[in-house]
Every structure is written in structure tokens, then in C-alpha cells.
Amino acid sequence: MRFLLSTGWLLALALAAGPACGQAPTAHPADTTRHYTYTERMPVFPAQERADSARPTMQRVIRFLNKDLHFPAKALRDGVQGKVYLTFVVDEHGHTADIKVAQGLRADVDAEVLRAAQRLAAIQWQPGTQNGRPVRVGFTAPVSFSVSGGRPPRPGVPGTDSLDLPQFNKLKLPSASWNLNKPAPADKGVLYGSCLQRLGFSSGGLGQYVRLVNLSTGQVFRLNVKPAMRSRRENPFCYALPAGRYALSQYEFGSSPYTLQVERLLKAQPAAVAGAQATRYVFSLLPGQLHYVGTWNFANANEPLFLSEKELLDPTILAEYPAANLTGALVALPH
Q: Most buried pick, 161, 168, 202, 312, via CB within 10 A?
């Protein structure tokens, strides 16, 4: 699966600063003290892949920049949206020069856009010409960053948000379970609950997993919520994780060793807040504290439920961990 880094790329010529389309500039073509915003033949960006032969120059540039742009993790968690306006010149030799951020969004985003744009300096363009002679041509590129909130109106078509980006979806080993007979570590919060899994007996001996993202640090944790070689429908789990605010990212399950299904854990109705908590189920862990996080019911596709059934689960937990102090647990259901 490939995830785009922004939802609204635009690359536009700065025509307003120069002569009207179709008019020749009054400056002499050999004059390199200024640059044109329109010429009789615009610069041509070289093809980077086979399909570029059918793409106009602007689409080629868009794809070139988009391939190496990484939205800063903190900006994603802060829900930053908006545009960064780049300017650059393609000179009479076909070199990209004067690459600048003309109007920024915020420091970390501006720096990343400028870093990606600096790669244009290595590109050899076919220069633009006026009256048959090469000239300098200026461009303005408004780069739009937007993380959409939740699902679009058409049912069954998923939306995207910041947790869909590649850094949150790389393969990770499961986190280690926690022994509830031990007290919670001073620097971590302990969570326990149960998972009502998909597939039931047909899941066979395969494990099932839920990914959590710490919204403060960007760390990803993969919890084993259905152990391997256990096919019963509901299973308890317990983990110790760094304290902080967490979002549920995805549920992973499969009916064969060759098929892993991934279901993004999205809210049916996005909340009116910024960042990942608008579209994802979130909860918080306090340091040195035990938390009950509920029954995570994934029985139905794209309809996760988080139920408070502590009185049903606690006897099962105490049978295995008789020293566990479950009465002092905080209730922290994802919401």
C-alpha cells in the first residue's frame, strides 16, 4: 500500500508577475538580469520514468518532489495544514537556481520542503526560449499539506490521516507481555484488557495484533492481542508501555501464513478536534499506574467497539496473576 504525503499538490506558474499569456516580454532575450514568467517555449523537466512521456512538465516536477518529501512527525501530531510557497528559476542553461521559501508555514515544515526542493539543483532541464534564444524562467510552487479527517461520504471508501504514513506502518516485532504480579514500573503505564478477535476458530494458530502509536513521541508498539496457537474467540492481554497518549492505528489478522489482513481503526464519525485524535480511538497511560482498557471487540469489519467489562475479566486475570491489584486500576477505554 502506498500512502501520499499530502492531499493537495499544486505547481503553478507565477503568471501574474509577468506579461499576459501570449504576449512577448519587452526585455531583450539575452538579458539575464531578470527572469520571465512566460515564454514562447517553457522549460521542460526531463522524464524520470517511462510513464513520464505522457505527462506534462508540471506533473513530472510534482512527482519528483513528492517522492522525497517527508512531513515532520511533530507537525503531523499537531495537525498542521496549509501551504508553503516555493520560488525557483530555471536559467538559460537549464539549471535550477535561487530555490527559496517565499512564504512559509512553520519552521520544521518549511525546512523539509526546502530540503526536498534542493534536489532540483541536480536536474538538467531543457531551458525555455524566447524568440528562439534560451532565457531564465521563474516559477512559484505552492506546496499544500493537508491530512484529511476521517472517512469520505461514500461508504466503504477509507479516508487517510497522519497514522497512514510509512513511518507508522513498518513491520515491527510484538511488544513483550507484562506480568501483572509485579507492580507497574515507575516510568511506564501498565494496560490490561481483552480482545474479541476476528475469524474465531478459522484463525487457527496465527497471532493477531493491534498497533498503537504514542502521540507524544511517535513510537509504534505492536501488541499481540490473540496469541499464536490459541483459537478461542476472546483472549486477555497485558503490556507495560511508556506513559503518554496513544492512538490505535490498525488491527492485523489472517487466516493463513500467506495472508495478512490489515484493518485501519478509524472512527465512524470524526471528532471536531485537530490531529490524529479526530479520526482515531485514543487513551492515556499514566506512569506507575495500572489501567483497564476494556474489551476490544473486532468481530465486525470496520466497526471496532470498546466495552467496559472489567467485572467479567478480572476473575480470569486473578486466576493467573493472584498478586495483581486490579481494584486500583484506572478505567481508560479508547474513545
A: 161
Picking from 94, 10, 13, the residue whose alpha carbon sits closest to that of residue 59 is 10
Q: What is the pTM for the complete model shown?
A: 0.56
The CATH architecture assigned to 15-145 reads: 2-Layer Sandwich (3.30)
Report pLDDT digits (tens) over 282-304: 999 999 999 999 999 998 888 89
Buried b (16+ CB within 10 A) or exposed e, 90-104: bbbebbbeebebeeb
pLDDT tens sequence across 24-41? 333 333 334 455 555 578
Give me the residue spans of the domains in the chain. 15-145, 163-331
E strand residue ranges, 215-307: 220-226, 234-242, 244-256, 259-264, 282-285, 290-297, 305-307
Question: DSSP assignment, residue 175?
Answer: P
Residue type, 203: S
| Residues 133 and 183: beta-carbon distance below 8 Å | no
Question: Residue ranges of the alpha helices (H) in the chain?
Answer: 57-66, 73-77, 107-117, 310-320
Please choose, from the candidates 60, 71, 90, 74, the residue with its C-alpha nearest in 3D space to the C-alpha of residue 144: 71
Beta bridge partners of 245: 284
Q: How far apart are CA 42 and CA 37, in angstroms?
A: 9
